[in-house]
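USER: Note each token:
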Amino acid sequence: MFKRLFLLMMVIVLASCGGNKPVAKTTTYKKPQPVARNVRKPVTKKPATATAKPVAQKSSSNQSGEMKKIEAQYEGAKEPEKSSGNTTVYSKQEILEATTRVRVTTQMVLDYIGQYKDIAKSNMNKFGIPASITLGQGILESGAGTGPLSALANNHFGIKCHKEWTGPSVAYDDDAAQECFRKYDDPSQSYQDHSLFLTTRDRYAFLFNLDKRDYQGWARGLKAAGYATDPKYPEKLIGIIERYQLNRYDAEVMGDEFVPLNTGPLTASQGVKANNIDTYEVVKGDTLYSISKKFNLSVDELRRKNDLSENAISIGQILKIK
């Protein structure tokens, strides 16, 4: 009896254990699927986003780099032409303005006159242009040979190319940017061309009806004929002629006795006054300071030379200047 009960209980226990097996099957084989799904996500998405961004960045940086190279090559191409003997010269506005504004000493001007006075006199004999006008223009236009145009092109008179010019040229900032100016092998050619320029153009023909001693009339006539655009050109030219007594070379060519000029500003009523080369006659508007500047003296030097105890002077008074 006991054995039967034991066997019955064993059957019941075994039956209940067999009913739990399906649960074990469901928990064992379904777990690997989510693991495989998690692995695919980083493999497919991350490389795609990592490679797309650098491509766009490299493209834009390469383009800007190429533009910089092109600009650098363009800018660099200007420099060799600036310092070489080529026909085109690139120049900055602050350098090119120095043509008539360069600072020169009295000695530099005197050296320039000494170098070119014989050429001016020879051209006066040949073409009829006063040597004082030629020299005065050369000093004014070239800054006594120190201006950029005279240095770059041996052009001492600022003559532009114009239609008939077939020779070499330089580009130069003047009334407009990069205008065409004539270039010469030697300054003497510039002086020759200056004379030809004035004698072969109808607009300057009336000048040759003036007296060759009338440098003031020539100076004003040049401006009226359009030689220069500066409204003060005649006064500047006349001032140079009178300051450096350039009319002496007109007198030498014409065989006249040279009478030194009053280097003060002349008016129509004053005319030309005769002065000894070592003295100066005071005219209306003069002061000791203005006279000292004309002759590169200090006021104290001027007073000492003339035994003056004060600065008062009178019209017609003769002052020692040397």
Remarks:
- The first helix runs from residue 2 to 18.
- The CA atoms of residues 233 and 282 lie 26 Å apart.
- The mean pLDDT is 73.
